[in-house]
Design goal:
alpha/beta; Rossmann fold; six-stranded parallel beta sheet; two-stranded parallel ribbon; 10 helices; globular; binds NADP nicotinamide-adenine-dinucleotide phosphate; NAD(P)H-binding protein
Length: 266
């Protein structure tokens, strides 16, 4: 089997390519240059896994171009990496994925939609930089709202299950971690793993600078912070657990992910 992974050179894509390699599937990581001739880039693939770039200004257009290229290249199996709670009109980048999901479902291809929660790994840069005497996990949104934070490696392993076993065509799977956690809970788990004090703190989103992002991207992320302030991003644990059980593994709790990836920094 040969899977073309769009966005395969990014953070999510690299994890998916590695998970596919672990089950003996040849994966073709494709970055932005693949869009110069997408049908040619997809030619010969048995399936395409679609990951859009972060905060794409028009994700439905991006996905529509992939659907057209897949049809032209005679690739009729497609999995789409969406997000948990895509239909959230106050978060433009989620709403773009909701609209793109609809395109996928009406594409005529054999599709599966995956809706991962936020990754535990998003917190790693901040936690890896904490000084030996401890410090803060500072985020521009509430530290006491619930999230179904998920291990990116679990998301990737579940994606490999979906691509390599039957029964997933026409399915939409929300992929949440094994328990609801808060950012304060992440800080507590990090303190245990790093054996130093870690305090969660909400910073003022209006003072958040969003280095390296343009004005639209900053505005979209501020909308997400406002949503997180009010609601977090809760998800259920069962679909991911069921998919991983098919390959004899269980979703990783936040503390286990942090222990695995921060081990070298304590
Ligand atoms: N982080 C989370 O917690 C989370 C949770 C759920 C869903 N997601 C979703 O996961 C997706 C991927 O996130 P990520 O962090 O893995 O992204 P990333 O590391 O920034 O990777 C982006 C990928 O998209 C490609 N790309 C960039 N600009 C492009 C363009 N204009 N046209 C075509 N391809 C382009 C990049 O290729 P090059 O190497 O050529 O630049 C790279 O392969 C996003 O849609 C995000 O919303 C993230």
């Amino acid at each position: 089997m040969n899977v073309a992974v769009l966005g395969g050179t990014g953070k999510t894509g690299r994890a998916v390519v590695a998970a596919l390699a672990q089950v003996g599937v040849s994966a073709r990581p494709l970055g932005r240059s693949a869009f110069e001739d997408l049908p040619a880039a997809l030619a010969g693939a048995d399936a395409v896994h679609v990951i859009a770039p972060n905060l794409h200004p028009d994700e439905p257009a991006y996905v529509a171009s992939v659907l057209a290229a897949a049809a032209e290249a005679n690739v009729d199996r497609l999995t789409y990496h969406s997000v948990a709670s895509p239909y959230a009109p106050s978060m433009p980048h989620h709403l773009g994925k909701a609209v793109a999901e609809d395109l996928v479902r009406r594409s005529g291809l054999r599709w599966t939609v995956l809706q991962p929660c936020a990754y535990v790994q998003n917190f790693l840069p901040a936690l890896a930089d904490l000084p030996a005497e401890g410090g803060e996990l500072a985020v521009p949104y509430a530290v006491d709202t619930p999230f179904g934070l998920v291990d990116l490696d679990d998301v990737a392993a579940a994606t490999a299950v979906v691509l390599t076993t039957p029964g997933h065509e026409g399915a939409t799977y929300e992929l949440g971690g094994p328990a609801l956690v808060t950012v304060a809970g992440v800080a507590g788990a990090a303190a245990e793993v790093l054996e130093r004090p870690v305090r969660a703190r909400r910073t003022d989103p209006d003072a958040w600078r969003g280095e390296g992002l343009d004005e639209r991207e900053r505005a979209w992320l501020r909308s997400m912070f406002a949503y997180y302030d009010d609601h977090g991003l809760p998800t259920g644990p069962l679909p991911l657990a069921a998919l991983l059980a098919m390959v004899g593994r269980a979703p990783s709790p936040v503390a286990d992910v942090l222990a695995r990836v921060l081990a070298g920094t304590s």
